[in-house]
Protein backbone atom coordinates (compact mmCIF):
# COMPACT_ATOMS: atom_id res chain seq x y z
CA UNK A 1 0.00 0.00 0.00
CA UNK A 2 1.29 3.45 -0.87
CA UNK A 3 2.16 5.86 1.95
CA UNK A 4 -0.27 8.52 0.75
CA UNK A 5 -3.13 6.01 1.18
CA UNK A 6 -1.97 5.11 4.68
CA UNK A 7 -1.77 8.80 5.65
CA UNK A 8 -5.22 9.35 4.17
CA UNK A 9 -6.66 6.50 6.25
CA UNK A 10 -4.97 7.93 9.36
CA UNK A 11 -6.49 11.35 8.59
CA UNK A 12 -9.95 9.82 8.15
CA UNK A 13 -9.71 7.94 11.45
CA UNK A 14 -8.56 11.10 13.23
CA UNK A 15 -11.41 13.15 11.75
CA UNK A 16 -13.97 10.55 12.83
CA UNK A 17 -12.44 10.43 16.31
CA UNK A 18 -12.53 14.23 16.40
CA UNK A 19 -16.27 14.18 15.82
CA UNK A 20 -16.63 12.02 18.93
CA UNK A 21 -14.68 14.40 21.17
CA UNK A 22 -15.18 17.98 22.27
CA UNK A 23 -11.70 19.25 21.49
CA UNK A 24 -9.80 20.38 18.41
CA UNK A 25 -6.60 18.42 19.02
CA UNK A 26 -7.47 15.45 16.83
CA UNK A 27 -8.59 17.85 14.11
CA UNK A 28 -5.10 19.37 14.05
CA UNK A 29 -3.54 15.90 13.91
CA UNK A 30 -5.90 14.98 11.07
CA UNK A 31 -4.89 18.08 9.14
CA UNK A 32 -1.26 17.14 9.82
CA UNK A 33 -1.97 13.72 8.31
CA UNK A 34 -3.41 15.44 5.23
CA UNK A 35 -0.21 17.47 4.95
CA UNK A 36 1.64 14.14 5.10
CA UNK A 37 -0.58 12.90 2.22
CA UNK A 38 0.55 15.89 0.15
CA UNK A 39 4.19 15.24 1.10
CA UNK A 40 3.77 11.55 0.16
CA UNK A 41 2.46 12.52 -3.26
CA UNK A 42 5.47 14.81 -3.81
CA UNK A 43 8.04 12.46 -2.26
CA UNK A 44 6.65 8.88 -2.32
CA UNK A 45 9.76 7.30 -0.77
CA UNK A 46 10.46 10.00 1.83
CA UNK A 47 8.61 8.60 4.85
CA UNK A 48 10.65 10.76 7.24
CA UNK A 49 9.85 13.87 5.21
CA UNK A 50 6.15 12.94 5.22
CA UNK A 51 6.08 12.33 8.99
CA UNK A 52 8.08 15.49 9.66
CA UNK A 53 5.78 17.64 7.45
CA UNK A 54 2.67 16.24 9.12
CA UNK A 55 4.13 16.58 12.61
CA UNK A 56 5.26 20.17 12.06
CA UNK A 57 1.85 21.11 10.64
CA UNK A 58 -0.01 19.54 13.59
CA UNK A 59 2.34 21.19 16.09
CA UNK A 60 2.03 24.60 14.42
CA UNK A 61 -1.76 24.36 14.36
CA UNK A 62 -1.82 23.38 18.03
CA UNK A 63 0.51 26.18 19.12
CA UNK A 64 -0.87 28.99 16.98
CA UNK A 65 -4.58 28.31 17.32
CA UNK A 66 -4.60 28.00 21.12
CA UNK A 67 -4.46 31.80 21.70
CA UNK A 68 -7.07 32.33 19.00
CA UNK A 69 -9.52 29.87 20.54
CA UNK A 70 -8.87 31.32 24.02
CA UNK A 71 -9.59 34.83 22.72
CA UNK A 72 -12.71 33.57 20.93
CA UNK A 73 -14.01 31.92 24.12
CA UNK A 74 -13.47 35.12 26.10
CA UNK A 75 -15.19 37.31 23.55
CA UNK A 76 -18.40 39.08 24.40
CA UNK A 77 -21.52 37.09 23.66
CA UNK A 78 -19.77 33.73 23.35
CA UNK A 79 -21.76 30.92 24.93
CA UNK A 80 -20.31 27.43 25.23
CA UNK A 81 -23.16 25.01 24.56
CA UNK A 82 -21.52 22.39 26.71
CA UNK A 83 -21.26 24.70 29.74
CA UNK A 84 -24.98 25.32 29.44
CA UNK A 85 -25.51 21.75 30.62
CA UNK A 86 -24.63 22.77 34.17
CA UNK A 87 -27.84 23.13 36.17
CA UNK A 88 -29.99 21.19 33.72
CA UNK A 89 -32.14 18.26 34.70
CA UNK A 90 -31.52 14.76 33.42
CA UNK A 91 -32.48 11.18 34.08
CA UNK A 92 -30.29 8.22 35.02
CA UNK A 93 -30.22 5.62 32.27
CA UNK A 94 -27.57 3.39 33.86
CA UNK A 95 -27.08 3.39 37.64
CA UNK A 96 -24.26 5.44 39.13
CA UNK A 97 -22.39 4.73 42.33
CA UNK A 98 -19.36 6.46 43.85
CA UNK A 99 -16.34 5.31 41.85
CA UNK A 100 -18.48 3.68 39.13
CA UNK A 101 -19.70 6.01 36.41
CA UNK A 102 -23.04 5.48 34.74
CA UNK A 103 -25.09 7.01 31.94
CA UNK A 104 -27.49 9.94 32.16
CA UNK A 105 -29.68 11.50 29.53
CA UNK A 106 -29.83 15.29 29.47
CA UNK A 107 -32.17 16.62 26.84
CA UNK A 108 -31.74 14.32 23.88
CA UNK A 109 -28.10 13.44 24.60
CA UNK A 110 -26.59 10.64 26.65
CA UNK A 111 -23.50 11.33 28.76
CA UNK A 112 -21.20 9.39 31.02
CA UNK A 113 -21.71 10.66 34.54
CA UNK A 114 -20.27 10.36 37.99
CA UNK A 115 -21.73 11.15 41.38
CA UNK A 116 -20.72 11.03 45.02
CA UNK A 117 -23.99 9.30 45.86
CA UNK A 118 -25.78 6.19 44.64
CA UNK A 119 -28.19 7.02 41.84
CA UNK A 120 -30.51 4.39 40.44
CA UNK A 121 -32.00 4.04 36.98
CA UNK A 122 -34.79 6.57 36.33
CA UNK A 123 -33.67 8.91 39.16
CA UNK A 124 -33.97 12.58 38.28
CA UNK A 125 -30.59 14.36 38.46
CA UNK A 126 -29.08 17.81 38.10
CA UNK A 127 -25.79 18.44 36.30
CA UNK A 128 -23.42 20.17 38.72
CA UNK A 129 -20.25 20.24 36.58
CA UNK A 130 -18.77 18.95 33.37
CA UNK A 131 -15.39 17.38 32.64
CA UNK A 132 -14.22 16.83 29.10
CA UNK A 133 -16.79 14.17 28.34
CA UNK A 134 -18.11 13.21 31.77
CA UNK A 135 -20.78 15.02 33.74
CA UNK A 136 -20.93 15.19 37.51
CA UNK A 137 -24.50 14.91 38.70
CA UNK A 138 -26.47 14.85 41.91
CA UNK A 139 -29.97 13.76 42.74
CA UNK A 140 -32.55 16.34 41.71
CA UNK A 141 -33.52 18.40 44.72
CA UNK A 142 -30.13 17.86 46.37
CA UNK A 143 -28.00 20.66 47.77
CA UNK A 144 -26.38 22.87 45.11
CA UNK A 145 -23.24 23.31 47.24
Automatic annotation (TrEMBL):
Residues 83-139 form the NfeD-like C-terminal domain. The chain crosses the membrane at residues 7-40, 46-64. GO terms for cellular component: plasma membrane. The keyword Nucleotide-binding does not apply. InterPro entries: Membrane_assoc_protease (IPR052165), NA-bd_OB-fold (IPR012340), NfeD-like_C (IPR002810). It is a multi-pass membrane protein. It is found in: Membrane. Keywords: Membrane, Transmembrane, Transmembrane helix. Its main location: membrane. It comes from the Bacteria. SUPFAM superfamilies: NfeD domain-like (SSF141322). The keyword Transmembrane applies. PANTHER family: INNER MEMBRANE PROTEIN YBBJ. This is NfeD family protein. It comes from Cohnella herbarum.
Amino acid sequence: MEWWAIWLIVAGVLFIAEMLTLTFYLLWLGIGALIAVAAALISPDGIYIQALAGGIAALALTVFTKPLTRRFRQSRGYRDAIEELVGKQGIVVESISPGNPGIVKVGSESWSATSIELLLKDDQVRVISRGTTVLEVQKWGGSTE
